[in-house]
Amino acid sequence: MAMQSGLEPYVLFEERHRIAEELHDRIGPHLFGIACAVHSAQQDVDCMTDEQLREQLRAIQESAIAASRELRAAIYGLSLSEKGGLSWIGSVESLLATQARLNGVRIRFRAPDSDRRLSVHHQKALYRIISEAVGNAIRHGACTIVEVKLTMRRSAVTLRISDNGTGFDERTGQPRPKNSGFGLGNMKALASSLGGNLQIDSSIGEGTRIVVRLPLDEAHDGTGPN
Fold this sequence. Notes:
By secondary structure, the protein is an alpha+beta fold. The protein has helices at about 1-45, 50-75, 90-105, 120-140, 185-195, and strands spanning about 105-110, 145-150, 155-165, 195-200, 210-215. The longest helix has about 45 residues, at about 1-45. It comes from Cohnella zeiphila.
């Protein structure tokens, strides 16, 4: 009983940490999109047709349903396969499609046919980086186009994200506000935790380009290079 009692605080901490990550990664983007879509509708309602307004409301409803579904998954710890067989690449496509629709931006996503060579840790890290980078491009960069490209080789996976937004001064982080969410520093730490690196190329008025390179474990190389 003493051993079980000692483990309980650790288990609770791990579970709280997992749920916090799930809330940030999978529900935060939906809530952000809903807030932006509502604000846009409020600003443009006088010049929107009835059909445009209905379409906006449908998009908001779909995102709210998705957020509710992700909330249940986070609470009960469901894996991607337990949520109806949606692949990791499929979940990224769904996230980006929702962000594009709710925020009125174009998001191009290119990825390999299979994500089987990515470990769970790679999937979580890349998902968080994509979510935060795209969110920052929309929220702080005021972009209209975002390009996300994922490529995999025998020994590494590379993620490239670029946007046509306002950009920022890499030395100071300006003009982005200090409370810019998950943050560039944390994205770099995520990449570093998997033995990789994250590079940023940005300047005011020139958009932002992010390149993430992560080494792949040979144990996940079940089908050869993609």
